[in-house]
Amino acid sequence: MSATIPSFAGTHWLFGSAAPFMAAPHLLPAQAGLQHGGLAWFRILHKRFLAVTDADFTRQALVTRHDRYERSFHYRNGQAILGFGLLSTDGPFWLKRRRQILPGFRPDSLQRLVPVTRDATLAMLDDWEQRRRANAAVPVLDDTQHLTLTIIGQALLSTDVGRDTSARFGTAVRESLHLMRERNTSWFSAPLWLPTRKNRYLHGTRAILDEYVSSHVAARKHCPVQHDILQTMRQARDPETGVGIDDDGLRDEAKTLFLAGFETTATALAWALYALAQRPELAERVHAELQATLHGAAPDFDSLKRLPLTSAVVNETLRLYPPVYNVARQAVTDDDYNGHRIPRGTILLFSVYGMQRDPHLWGADADEFRPERFLAESWPKHAFMPFAIGKHVCIGNHFAVTEMTVALAMIVQRYRLALTDPEPIGMVGRITLAPDRDISLHLTPR
């Protein structure tokens, strides 16, 4: 006999948990799961969801029995912007495409990423120095977004992304993905072919992205070979048929990598700087490690392995502020876990935010920024999944960590950081787990 999965209390009789979920989509699944032993039903309008914070069941669903679950409609809705890229597809098409793209993210590609990140970070730091001399504060989120767009532009397309393009991209992407989140939770969404105001905006955003990326895909046919991710994808061949990725596929995958590769890393890096500004004693320890290892030089690929505390700061940032805070799946067949029946058709929201803040797994200080936990011999590795786990683990996970570590090392070597506003900054669930207002820093040269 199956045990009954509890329901999250306090929902509206008609709207269910729609209001609190729209207000804080990172919090509601976490609260529902943590308050009810790891699994809890909740409802948004007419749709029923299963909130999951149980790390063992998450591993079962995403790893050992992944064939019983597929990406939910949340990802398919992303096709309105992304087309048929890795983030919006599943099944055999997704698997073949992932195998074709994977070589662009192997260790030799990461080695090429380090100097790209160094150059982009140095340019940002030069701009910061001008602001510091003018006694002006640094708007962290704007600058980290431009930084990560610059890096992905070079790594993916070997192109410079200017400030104007960066701002245009960032605004368009954030607004459009906000509209896509509304489609995922609304009672009724107009078909995409209907020319509503929101649909026109979505199509307009897609046109902006398509035009920019397609121009680079087309130009690559007539320019010398570049050692970047686009070139790797152009050279990729299906091992069975020998067929490569066509221009539409290159456009969709490049667009997907652009979108996935800048907002998440930019937000995580902003949170890391916020945490270090809050804890100057920790920042001094990180600086001491950097000085002892790098002796004032910028990091190279090999030196990254000799920065355990800096790496722990990155991991702790990704634990406490996971950019992707929920992972959605739909059961394609019945499943069971610890006597609980998971019916076919169930939509599951695995709360990365909740699992990574579970005090039963991470201790009573689970809500505190304490990177030392990652220096211990034992920590709950099975409950650490900022890039998801299983077959759909983020293809750019090592890319993002390398990028963050290099940028963080260069910033901390050069400046002491202080918040201009001592009031705590809250979290808001948007595309990523973003600050509820900009993080503004005063800089003091070391």
Description:
The protein has 446 residues and is α+β, with helices and mostly antiparallel strands. The chain has a domain at 27-64 and 325-385: 2-Layer Sandwich (Uridine Diphospho-n-acetylenolpyruvylglucosamine Reductase, domain 2). Helices cover 51% and strands 11% of the residues. It has 17 helices and 12 strands. The protein has helices at residues 18-23, 28-35, 55-64, 73-77, 79-82, 91-101, 107-133, 140-157, 163-185, 197-220, 229-235, 247-278, 280-294, 308-320, 352-355, 359-362, 397-414, and strands spanning 39-44, 47-52, 69-71, 138-139, 326-331, 335-337, 340-342, 347-351, 415-419, 427-429, 433-435, 440-445. Strands 1-2-8-5-3 form a 5-stranded mixed sheet. A 3-stranded antiparallel sheet has the order 4-12-9. The protein has a two-stranded antiparallel ribbon with strand order 6-7. Helix 7 packs parallel to helix 17 (397-414) and helix 12 (247-278) packs parallel to helix 17 (397-414). It is globular, with a radius of gyration of 22 Å.
